[in-house]
Specification:
alpha/beta, elongated, 2 domains, 4 strands
Amino acid sequence: MNTALRPMGVDLNLRLTIIIPPILQLLIFGYAATYDLERVRFAVYDEECSYVSRDLISRFSGSPTFQLVSQITRDEQIAPLIDNKSVLLIMRIGPRFSRDLLTGRGTNLQVIIDGRNSNTALIVLNYVRTILTDFNMDWIARHNLPNPPANLHIRSWYNENLESRWFIVPGIVGILTLVVTMVVTALSVAREREQGTFDQLLVTPLRPFELLLGKALPGFIIGIAEATLIIVIAIFWFDIPLRGNLLALYIGLIMFLLSAIGVGLMISSNL
């Protein structure tokens, strides 16, 4: 074990490889890798200009997700806004929008979304669907209309606001821990062979189990320390709450590290 840990105390590049890249990747993925959208630029084509249509528009413009940038008055203005990527979404409200609602009949609302990025378009469509659902339920409540026969309320248990950072950062714990543990374990044996000291270990009175344990412990210790550091950063820097069982987390982490160490030893034996 000492021979496996000693290079990290001497080799500055090895220490930097183990410490700096995981922290940088955690910060980069924590801030850059996100599926949440903010300030989606949209335009409105309101053919009615009633208080009902203005109420609907205000729900979009008042949301932190959307940003109203243009109000158009002609059909010819729709295509250039989408083609030039000036807006991601255009909402068209027909001339009978409020009258159809007041008479109890259903009405149509046209939403035009730039679909060149299909993933972004689907996310925007879900945002639009959420706002329209809230508008419909408020309209039903204000005008004493019969409720729909069944309402489906979806609630995420551990991530109520469905923030993508809460999904991504905890996953980085496993990814970075796996990479660092395998690299440390694989390099420990490979370095011994490269320096010619591995054969000397084989002729010592140490049993094979003790040799494997000595090569596995450094990777295990570094993996636990790496995972703990990332968990602490996730909780106190990214404000991601730890709502599960900490003991269960570390039991799973230990089993995960043992698997990663086995893969690292297998890789080093074939180098």
